[in-house]
Amino acid sequence: MTRTVPSPDARAAIADALARLPRVVDLLAARAEEHDRDGTFPYQGIEAVHEAGLLTLTVGPRHGGPGATLADTVQVLARLGRGDASVALLTAPTLLLHAEQARTGAWPAGLYRRLLTESRRGPALVDTLRADPPAVTAHRDGEGWLLSGRQADCPGAEALAWMAVRARTDEPQPRVGLFLVRGDSAGVEIDPGSELIGLRACALHDVVLDRVRVNPEAAVRLAPPSGPDRTAESWRELALAAVLLGVGRAAQDWLVRRLGRGAPAGAPCHRAALGELECSLIGAEELVHGLAARVDRGDPAALERTGAAGLLVNRTVTAVAREAVVLAGQDGLSRRHPLERHLRDALSGRAHFTAEDRVLDAVGRSLLG
């Protein structure tokens, strides 16, 4: 691993973007209930994130971007998650893609320039459609490929400009790689998928590919099946954890306002309960931000801990949201207030993490050598 150190000019650009975060978060919070109720995609929220320069914050310096670090990325996502966790979750894959391109240069230069051009015109969302084993098959057709299959539960599928589809070839000796597909390609259909109780504005749909043609230059990293890129997985795990941190803080924010309507200092029992929630959130935040900084410094030991960190943050934020509902009483369960939405978002977050049993099994395996 190489250490990530943005230049002074890049740091200034990142600081300017971060300074625009409060306005964006307020805008997201104002529309979050509407999108959750209707299950509609938050186009205005994504537009606001784009206009603030946050959607391309991780574009590398050699491509004209500031090259934000993982520590910057988790800070942005945690703040966005405080306004609307769905928008934060939809923003994360694009930030991760640009960061990975800065590290590895996996996308062909011409296709990545096209993505950057689209990003200057408006929001250009990208996501990696992954499944283990791959749910999409690539069939050789002349010089190019034809992709067929169904990738389930893709956040923001209806609005993706590009999809990096992880597929397995049907060759005698199969290979696995990423196939770069335009979201409006012929043969791509969006099929309404599962309806989670929370994060409803993510528009979690299935992507159906029916003999979608991919040019040879858009097939990258074709190789025999292998393990995941640990650095990319660490970025993803901490990014998702950061989104949930925002949910936890949003739940606590509302509860503090609710309980603070009484005596100026609040009831002693409420102070102690809020103190418990605050300590839990501090621990989760320090874990995520600390590991992100270590990954940026090139610490290989940090990479092995991000999966466990995601599990712990998931548990912590869910517990915080549940306790906030209990402390709020009847108001905590009312659709008139956002607390029940925060609880649903926290519970739904686990659908986007690696399953707990797999994380625990991996940790146990490492202990046993």
From TrEMBL:
Coiled coil segments of this chain: none
Keyword Flavoprotein set for record: yes
The Acyl-CoA dehydrogenase/oxidase C-terminal domain, residue ranges: 240-350
Source organism of the structure: Kitasatospora cinereorecta
GO MF annotations, alphabetized: oxidoreductase activity
Xref: Pfam families: Acyl-CoA_dh_1, Acyl-CoA_dh_N
Domain Acyl-CoA dehydrogenase/oxidase N-terminal, chain residue ranges per copy: 28-91
Uppermost EC category: oxidoreductase
Signal peptide: none
Protein name in the entry: Acyl-CoA dehydrogenase family protein
Enzyme Commission code: 1.-.-.-
